[in-house]
Amino acid sequence: MSWWAFTFPLGAYTVSTFLLGDVFHAPTLHGIAIALWMLLLCFWAVVFLQTLRGVLNGELLRPPAPGVQRAGS
């Protein structure tokens, strides 16, 4: 589930690259932004599918066993 935390900054970098391309009239930045956008879509798809898998098999929504320390706690 924590992989979703990476999608927001990557999306922000992608949008800002598009905007920089507009401001500086730089077609190279637009090309980079399009590549970043395609990578971001792939990343979103992988994270979404892994989240869906975790929900469907119950792994994601299962409470932790008593006495088990969760990562990041």
Folded structure, characterized:
The chain is mainly α. The chain has one domain. The protein has 2 helices and no strands. The mean pLDDT is 89.
Shape: elongated
The assigned structural class equals mainly alpha
| DSSP E strands, number | 0
Radius of gyration: 18 Å
Termini, distance in Å? 14 Å
Present the secondary structure layout.
Blueprint: H1 4-23, H2 27-56
Protein traits:
73 residues; 0% strand; elongated
Short synopsis of the structure:
With 73 residues, the chain is mainly α. It has two helices and no strands.
